[in-house]
Amino acid sequence: MFAVRPPASAPWPGDVDAQLLIKAAELADTSAGFTAPHPNSACLLFNGKDIVGSGVLYGQGTTSAEVQACQSAREAANGCTAYLNLEPGDCHGDDTAILSLKQAGVSRVVVGIRHPLQHFRGRAVSELRRSNIAVDILGETLPKNVSTEQALKACQYVNAPLLYRSSLRCPMSTLKYAMTLDGKIAASTGHAAWVSSKESRQRVFATRGRTNAIIVGGNTVRRDNPRLTTRQEGGHLPARIVMSRCMHLPEDAELWDVSSAPTTVMTQRGARKDFQRRLEKKGVEIVEFDFLTPKAVMDYCYDRGFLSVLWECGGTLAAPAITSGVIHKVMAFIAPKIIGGVTAPSPVGDMGMVEMTQALNLADVSFEQIGPDMLISGFLQPIPDLQLSVPDGLDELSVQEAESFTEKPTVISFYKAWDPMGALSNFSPHPIEFMNEGVLEHWPGVEHYYQAQKFKGVQDTLAMDVVKKIQEAQSPEEAAQLGRSLAMRRPDLVRADWEDVKLEVMYKALKAKFSKYSGLRSLLLSTSGTILSESSPCDLFWGAGREGEGLNNLGRLLMRLRSHFLKEEQHAEYEPKTSTMNT
């Protein structure tokens, strides 16, 4: 639990609403890097004098910030004002955040930004107002001044990836590079270790931990042989993506070791099929495109549910990435060194500009000294401001749009927990329980249970230890990472019958989840007559794949469970009722 409180003797001068929203945004940012990028939300409960409760969303599928804040405040929450940097909305069909505020007796809610995702946007605000709780929103009902503008920017910054994804249908992309004072990223020979300082590299490692994926080109793999890890103990490990049209890549590279982090090679269809097969045997994912471009890769990353991507490529790839419009932010580390050389590479290749008036200008530029280096950051494309146009009746309109299914689709897709049908995901925040040999077992969620069962009954200290760690993992992502990593590193520890039983293990967990929560059962039954498709573009066993080539086993199991529930309801409907009248 994170506590935020000013010194006891310090008053809350000036615009209290703006100050507390900035603190909420700062608190929300503390969860970045622990699990895969997710909506960053925090909640502060303020009684007019002190902050009496606080909470922050740790990751997808974990307890909401509002619930945590109300639990920490207990009775002191009654009559408080809740400060939320982001309108609640972490999983479709999960109303615990709103219910916790109502049940705690919160009298007012101040929201930094409305939720960028359309199926959440306005829903919580509308529900709170219907419950006679006053709701104020930055840029709408609060007066505009310097303080509120700063607060709005803070709330937008902490959820910039979500705003870019929602507005542009593209993950937020940041181009990172380190260069000398004379603009070189390597010597004429290609040697680049190290341009920047140790302190700057530590910042890069931390930045990697806050992103979904890191992208490099083939030249970087051949020249630098990078690992692209966070070099930190614990925390989120981003996917590593290599773009190479020709697949002329080294047979042995650090990136082909996928025991700790996944690697995907994106190439053009048909390139070096024999080499592709060798990489696939090592566990490297191969994705083929008819024509490999930065835009095509970002479309793929969007479909995969990514919120943010870090480009650590050389100038040859950086130039087309910028000109294609997929780079939103730049982080440039400038080292106080001069190396010279006409042929020494620069961070961005030729973009066809011949006059200085064609230069691209950065907005919201910031300067920060890191060790001996200077970090200059700025935006090539401003953070989308969804507050600029808020039509009348937005609350009611968004609720209607989210709930109206006048024409039921033939296929209902789901993937991330925050998707419109995200409650079907294994990463949704729904603990499960069931009896096992006379003992009631509790699991944080479906993914936790499934990953642990890979090693059930294996009499090995390492296997038994990881089962315990999986059950104690705070988020579904961490549970999945633990299970997948050990299974890949030590396949001999996976139970011998796993391939035969894993479908039934998953079905058991799904049945426990949808049986426990009546709302989830109703949601599943509402999909009757449709095909359920787990739209993972990379998991061809549980998901449907990019082009429907996957087995979609998770969707199939959910449809099987739906049929089971429908038969139960039909049986209950036609079962003769026993009279309770005296005869």
From TrEMBL:
What residues does the CMP/dCMP-type deaminase domain cover? 15-124
Q: In which pathway does it act?
A: Cofactor biosynthesis; riboflavin biosynthesis; 5-amino-6-(D-ribitylamino)uracil from GTP: step 3/4
TM ranges: none
Q: Which UniProt keywords apply?
A: Multifunctional enzyme, NADP, Oxidoreductase
Q: Please give the InterPro entries that the UniProt record associates with this protein.
A: CMP_dCMP_dom (IPR002125), Cytidine_deaminase-like (IPR016193), DHFR-like_dom_sf (IPR024072), Eubact_RibD (IPR004794), NADAR (IPR012816), RibD_C (IPR011549), RibDG_C (IPR002734), Riboflavin_Biosynth_HTPR (IPR050765)
SUPFAM superfamilies named in the record:
Cytidine deaminase-like (SSF53927), Dihydrofolate reductase-like (SSF53597), YbiA-like (SSF143990)
Q: Which domain of life is it from?
A: Eukaryota
**EC number(s) per entry:** 1.1.1.193
Q: Name one Pfam family in it.
A: RibD_C
One record GO biological process = riboflavin biosynthetic process
- Care to name a GO molecular-function term for this sequence? 5-amino-6-(5-phosphoribosylamino)uracil reductase activity
Coiled-coil region: none
Show the NCBIfam families listed in the entry.
eubact_ribD (TIGR00326), ribD_Cterm (TIGR00227), ribofla_fusion (TIGR02464)
Official protein name in the record: 5-amino-6-(5-phosphoribosylamino)uracil reductase
Q: Which organism is it from?
A: Ceratopteris richardii
